[in-house]
Amino acid sequence: MTAIKYMQIMEDLKEQIEMGALAPGDMLPSENSLSSRYGISRMSARKGLLLLAEKGYIYSAPGKGYFVSEPTYSKHILYFDETEFIKRYVDEVKLYRVDIEPASEEVSMELKIPINKKVIVVKNIFLADDIPIAYDIKYLPYDKGQPIIEEEIGYATFPEIVTNQFSLFSVKKELKIWPEISNEESNKLLRLKDAHPLLVIEQKCINNDGKPIVWGHMHIKREYSKLYAVSSL
Q1: Pairwise CA distance, residues 29 & 48, whole Å
Q2: Residue 162, CA distances (Å) to 40, 46, 139, 215, 218 in order
Q3: Angstrom distance (rounded) from CA 20 to CA 10
Q4: Among 213, 133, 131, 125, which Cα is nearest to 165's?
Q5: What is the mean pLDDT of residues 40-57?
Q6: Which DSSP letter does residue 43 get?
Q7: Residues 6+ away with beta carbon under 8 Å from 183
Q8: Is pLDDT of 1 > 60?
Q9: Other CB atoms within 10 A of residue 40 CB
Q10: What CA–CA distance (Å, rounded) separates 200 from 197?
């Protein structure tokens, strides 16, 4: 019953905060008060409070107690998943090419490898109704003797590339997003005759040691480049 009780504490207080019965800055009942009210140990009452703090609803002030947090509606969590993008818009992923080449200055900086160290470069084109709507370029450090299976590397998304080496829970992902006008290469890959607005999404996966595993960028036609973000507490 203890597990149910501390979860009940969390849910009850969460509901009071969401309903406005407890406002930002209000002090919550003490651990002793909650343990007495719910008939559980002080340690279990503390666990319920800590769970609520982990969700961002409350915070602890040492020596004073727990208080309701001030919501920050200007802070948003952005969702972008290459796999979801493919499921939503793409009918076919076409492997354009896989090469091994010396790292440029930019690639060496992003992957934290020496200039001219060999990297695997993968280019894919994404099509809908046989019309290119996006393309991406991925760069992976190349180790001599490492087997290269074009299909596996070529069609793999960022999560698939990472899970071949690490658990996703041990990897940090960075995103950079900006608009651009298509250049000569973009026009060729996307079959564009004139300059066209694109959205560029740069992705980088980094392991626990701070070493980049894969870096790349996806160039998406404006009409297929909607992103989704929600406010967080």
Answers
A1: 12
A2: 44, 37, 13, 11, 17
A3: 15
A4: 213
A5: 89
A6: H
A7: none
A8: no
A9: 21
A10: 10
Which pLDDT score, from 0 to 100, does residue 147 have?
A: 59
CA distance 103 to 96: 19
CB distance 107 to 115 below 8 Å: no
Of the ranges 5-14, 92-101, 131-140, 141-150, which one carries the lowest mean pLDDT score? Answer: 141-150
pLDDT tier for residue 159 given thresholds of 50, 70 and 90 = confident
Per residue in 146-156, pLDDT tens? 656 655 677 77
- Which tokens in the block code for residue 233? 């507490």
| DSSP alpha helix (H) spans, 55-164 | 82-89, 105-111, 150-155, 158-163
Instruction: Give 204's strand partners.
Output: 174, 215
- Position 58, amino acid: I
Cβ–Cβ under 8 Å, residues 6 and 48: yes
Start-to-end CA span in the chain (Å): 30
Q: Residue 2 has what pLDDT?
A: 45
